[in-house]
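Supplementary notes for students who missed Thursday's class. We covered one full example, reproduced here. Read the sequence, then the structure, then the short commentary at the end.
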Amino acid sequence: MARQRQLSKLEAQGLRQGFEYTHESAWNTLKDFLEERGVQNLYGSRDTTRAAFRTGLIENGETWMAMIQSR
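Structure (token representation):
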């Protein structure tokens, strides 16, 4: 849709909120899973992303870190 016309402020805000919510849910799910498996000291999204990459739960750690920075 953004290629057809400029997004309205409301549409852009909704898109950002959807991204933030989805990313927040994803890293919290990863954190819960890792903690259930005995991984400790996961204090935030960066720690969780690094641990998920290290254990093979995610393959594209750099992309995940970029998502954290773009929030």
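Commentary. Residues 53 and 61 are 6 Å apart (CA to CA). The chain has a mean pLDDT of 91. If anything here is unclear, bring it to office hours.
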